[in-house]
Amino acid sequence: MQDSFKHKGMRRQLIAQLRQDSRITNEAIFEAFDKIPRHFFLDLAFVEQAYTNMAFQIGAGQTISHPITVAFQTQLLDIQRGDKILEIGTGSGFQTCILCQMGAKVFSIERQRELHLKAKKIIHDLNFTPRLSFGDGYLGLPLIAPFDKIIVTCGAPDIPQTLKDQLKTGGVMIIPIGEGSEQIMKRIVKVSETEFQEEELGTFKFVPMLERKVK
Ligand code: SAH
Fold this sequence. Notes:
Elements: H1 5-19, H2 27-35, E1 56-59, E2 62-64, H3 67-77, E3 84-88, H4 94-101, E4 105-110, H5 113-125, E5 131-134, E6 147-152, H6 161-165, E7 167-177, E8 183-190, E9 196-204
Parallel strand pairs: 3-4, 3-6, 4-5, 6-7
Antiparallel strand pairs: 1-2, 7-8, 8-9
Helix pairs in contact: 2-4
S-adenosyl-L-homocysteine binds at residues 62-65, 70, 88-89, 91-92, 94-95, 109-112, 115, 136-138, 153-154, 207, 209-211.
């Protein structure tokens, strides 16, 4: 796939739209959106709409998150260069690349083999080197934990204890919680080994986080 001036122009327009949202204040997010060609992550049929604020099917019944949702979750993560991040739900790999572009060391898990393989190729073609795992995000990555930050990009029924355990003290987890059609975005701060602070940050729509059904 090509990244043309037309695509770059459309990216600028999307960024202008994201800037209208007062919740997104981290300049590095806009820079990352400028660098990553979102149309590479979509089926050909959707390429023309790649830079509108929409979610699209990416295969296996899953969707790429809305740009504003990616921007908002990234804002909440407060990425610092070198942060060790666990992402649950690689999906298309777009969010993964945004985090890599911002200098994070990303470990991402996806439970659909088809998507894991597709994302691997695109991310590799873009020269990013996150570690991509095929498996169940509920298990996290115990051998690599603890993480500075954890981002979950599918709607979880509650906050998985394994992921809480795999967060560093002082670490942050951004996770949409809820089993219905809408989820509440939560920011969890691990204050000590056993204490967590929770904050609710609005309503979003995610595909569900499905347990132990690796395909
Ligand atoms: N950030 C991605 C979001 C994709 S949608 C993007 O913008 O493209 C969420 C993804 O979470 C889907 O691909 C889905 O297959 C995956 N998922 C759902 N439950 C999971 C689990 N238990 N472990 C890992 N991935 C999971």
